[in-house]
């Protein structure tokens, strides 16, 4: 894609005439072959200055426009209205590297009219601060006439300088802080200047002439919960990413996962969306199981110590919330865009994408992540196979969204099973949804649906060919399995589906990864598919971000498969076993629930975690390397008038080093903390935050860094099993990466080399 920008300045008093001339001719540009955009922007500082912006699919389209009558008509119309402008007022730029060093960055944002003065004042301050940023050259503030849409159009000496600045989280406060409230929803585009004015690709012919060429750091295929999570985590770290999805519009019905696990809620807290999710969902407070009409057990899921309960939230709501969060980071999924093919080499991936308008795009990315679901095109193109084959349940199932009138406790997931001679021959699962008496039901489909397949294997997933079950079908299932007198009403949606299950033989092939349902398929027992996919993306994204920046150790990306595939195998197996039983382990229901909620997830067998303890009993009561780092409360930081949670310290996109000392700690160890932290900060390319946690009886040393926090109530000491002097390194995904007691600086440095081997 090619963009041209022509700057002109109206003669005094002729500003409206310039706008009128544009309105007359601009529409004709849009009708030309290869035109993608045409706008007239106005300089927000100089009211007499305008910028004509056009975008074209390729060089040929641009040349045809320049040599054609429409460009001549526009030039003739504005020539008498504007002051003379020379070649320096004309810019040609591309969305791929064209051999030049300079780049332009276009940030599009909205400023409400009633806050315009606030924005303008903040912008003056931002522009002043930016003058000291290495690599930054200049910028202009443009506005779309008659609207509240602004463009900050900045020139940089090179792409590396820009990404170095944007990847530093401090930039938001140090330079962009005065206009940060207006950057919650913006769009950012990057353009390259050709090595010499007018140079560019040779004209193409045939089908290639309509192709658009784009570059990005990471191409994410699939805009479901897994793909959106990956994109959010990459964008939070300043990594340029592109998300495509073959569906033209997102789903609007509860045809997929509706259970959000406790651990996922913790991740959403870190991402800043947990409040919105809670407001949109309903708490699932327990479950009940009935076999042949007799209640076999009932369990409350409101367990003490859980950070969050189990949330009921339809997947379309999850996708809506994640999409909105992604938009605040300047990324919007490209819908109606389908991956056709890709190839990879040592430097990246080249993908061919079919777009909604019938054209094609070529996307060059450093990495590609396939989050494109059960029918994954990425998995197909990689030639991945399911270990042991793809399993399919012989039965057909149906889903429905209905109101149910019965006497059952609110907020409970209900399972009704029927057994004959000890063998299950009927099942009904009812999950509450937001709304009075509203449930998502799952049960065996009526025999007529299986008859429609001719006894042959129906396709996996949701079937459009077999038609939709009726309210009478739902009522028949309730009559057979639910308490007598149960009535269904208001069928909003229904579908027939077949359960598939399996896990692929590998999660990575070179620079291409698979995650979520592209990597593993489960029966819908507890929403495992969506939550596991989110965990996949959570594990992968922080590692990919370091790799994109060139500071990851060689084996860091390999740890994605090493850590996540065993978890996927375990979950697939457990979900298959649970599908037709009333419970796996009645002796320890609480442990099983915590396991289902991913609260017991550990990467203890990963080569990326470690420890160094001098005494076998040291840290015995604390989380092991690879375990989820538990939250604690009762922490106090000088100058803060309220207690902190440990999560307040570890939240964010970096590693967190927690150094602990009580009154028995050696003074020399405390004195060395400042230098140790500074050394580690450099080794990890400033990707580590650190804190010195002190017991109430420990003397605080004079330190510039790391900050001192008091473990006033001893909760950290108890939860992490520390005494004397010790340390825990918490990874960005919230798992323990390394621990030692006493503090072993050399062992920690060796561990960090496993993560940041590429840092300089």
Describe what this molecule looks like in 3D.
The chain is α+β, with helices and mostly antiparallel strands and 760 residues long. The protein folds into four domains: 2-209, Alpha-Beta Plaits; 214-283 and 306-389 and 503-596, FAD/NAD(P)-binding domain (3-Layer(bba) Sandwich), CATH 3.50.50.60; 394-498, Alpha-Beta Plaits; 610-755, Glutaredoxin (3-Layer(aba) Sandwich). The chain is built from 21 helices and 37 strands. The chain has an eight-stranded antiparallel barrel. Strands 9, 10, 16, 17, 18, 19, 28 and 29 form an eight-stranded mixed β-sheet that branches. An eight-stranded mixed β-sheet has the order 14-13-22-23-24-21-26-25, covered by helices on one side. α7 (225-236) runs parallel beside α10 (315-328). Its cofactor is FAD. GO terms for molecular function: FAD binding; oxidoreductase activity, acting on paired donors, with incorporation or reduction of molecular oxygen, NAD(P)H as one donor, and incorporation of one atom of oxygen. Residues 617-630 have a biased composition (Basic and acidic residues). Belongs to the PheA/TfdB FAD monooxygenase family. This is 2-polyprenyl-6-methoxyphenol hydroxylase.
């Amino acid at each position: 894609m090619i963009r041209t920008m022509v700057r002109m300045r109206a003669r005094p008093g002729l500003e409206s005439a310039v706008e009128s001339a544009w309105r007359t001719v601009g529409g004709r540009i849009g009708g030309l072959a290869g035109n993608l955009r045409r706008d007239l922007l106005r300089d927000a500082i100089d009211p007499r200055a305008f910028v004509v912006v056009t975008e074209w699919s390729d060089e040929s389209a641009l040349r045809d426009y320049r040599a054609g009558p429409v460009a001549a008509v526009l030039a003739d119309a504005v020539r008498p209205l504007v002051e003379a402008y020379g070649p320096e007022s004309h810019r040609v730029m591309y969305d791929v590297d064209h051999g030049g060093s300079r780049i332009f960055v276009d940030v599009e944002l909205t400023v409400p009219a009633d806050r315009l003065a606030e924005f303008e004042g903040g912008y003056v301050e931002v522009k002043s601060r930016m003058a000291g940023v290495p690599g930054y050259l200049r910028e202009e503030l443009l506005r779309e006439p008659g609207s509240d849409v602004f463009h900050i159009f900045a020139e940089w000496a090179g792409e590396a300088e820009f990404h170095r600045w944007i990847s530093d989280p401090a930039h938001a406060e140090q330079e962009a802080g005065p206009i940060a409230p207006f950057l919650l929803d913006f769009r950012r585009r990057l353009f390259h200047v050709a090595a010499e004015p007018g140079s560019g690709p040779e004209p193409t012919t045939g089908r290639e002439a309509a192709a658009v060429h784009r570059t990005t750091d990471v191409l994410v295929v699939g805009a479901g919960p897994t793909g959106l999570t990956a994109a959010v985590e990459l964008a939070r770290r300043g990594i340029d990413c592109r998300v495509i999805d073959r569906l033209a519009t997102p789903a609007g019905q509860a045809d997929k996962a509706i259970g959000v696990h406790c651990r996922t809620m913790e991740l959403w807290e870190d991402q800043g969306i947990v409040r919105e999710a809670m407001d949109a969902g309903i708490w699932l407070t327990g479950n009940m199981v009935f076999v042949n009409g007799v209640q076999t057990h009932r369990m409350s899921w409101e367990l003490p110590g859980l950070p969050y309960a189990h949330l009921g939230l339809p997947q379309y709501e999850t996708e809506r919330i994640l999409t909105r969060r992604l938009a605040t980071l300047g990324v919007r999924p490209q819908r109606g865009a389908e991956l056709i093919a890709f190839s990879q080499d040592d430097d990246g991936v080249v993908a061919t994408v079919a777009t909604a308008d019938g054209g094609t795009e070529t996307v060059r990315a450093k990495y590609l992540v396939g989050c494109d679901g059960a029918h994954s095109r990425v998995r197909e193109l990689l030639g991945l196979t399911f270990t042991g084959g793809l399993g399919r349940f012989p039965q057909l199932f149906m889903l429905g969204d209905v109101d149910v009138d019965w006497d059952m406790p609110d907020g409970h997931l209900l399972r009704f099973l029927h057994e004959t001679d000890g063998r299950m021959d009927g099942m009904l699962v009812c999950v509450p949804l937001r709304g009075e008496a509203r449930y998502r039901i799952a049960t065996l489909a009526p025999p007529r649906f299986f008859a429609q397949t001719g006894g042959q294997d129906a396709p996996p997933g949701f079937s459009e060919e077999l038609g939709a079950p009726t309210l009478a079908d739902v009522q028949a299932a309730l009559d057979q399995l639910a308490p007598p007198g149960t009535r269904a009403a208001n069928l909003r949606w229904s579908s027939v589906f077949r359960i598939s299950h399996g896990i692929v033989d590998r999660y990575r092939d070179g620079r291409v990864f698979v995650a979520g349902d592209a990597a593993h398929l489960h029966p819908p027992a507890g929403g495992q598919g969506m939550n596991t996919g989110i965990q996949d993306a959570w594990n992968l994204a922080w590692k990919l971000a370091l790799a994109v920046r060139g500071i990851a150790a060689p084996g860091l990306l390999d740890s994605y498969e090493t850590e996540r595939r065993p978890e996927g195998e375990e979950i697939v197996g457990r979900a298959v076993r649970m599908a037709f039983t009333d419970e796996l382990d009645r002796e320890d229901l609480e442990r099983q629930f915590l396991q289902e909620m991913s609260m017991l997830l550990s990467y203890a067998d990963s080569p990326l975690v470690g420890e160094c303890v001098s005494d076998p009993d040291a840290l015995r009561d604390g989380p092991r390397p690879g375990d989820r780092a538990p939250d604690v409360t009762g922490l106090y930081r000088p100058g803060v008038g309220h207690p902190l949670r440990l999560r307040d310290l570890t939240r964010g996109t970096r590693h967190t080093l927690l150094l602990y000392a009580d009154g028995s700690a050696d003074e020399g160890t405390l004195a060395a903390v400042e230098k140790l932290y500074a050394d580690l900060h450099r080794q990890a390319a400033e990707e580590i935050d650190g804190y010195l946690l002190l017991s109430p009886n420990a003397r605080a040393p004079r330190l510039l860094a790391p900050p001192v926090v008091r473990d006033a109530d001893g909760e950290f000491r108890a939860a992490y099993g520390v005494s004397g002097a010790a340390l825990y390194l918490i990874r960005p995904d919230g798992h323990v990466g390394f621990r030692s007691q006493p503090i072993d600086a050399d062992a920690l440095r060796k561990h960090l080399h496993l993560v940041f081997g590429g840092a300089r």
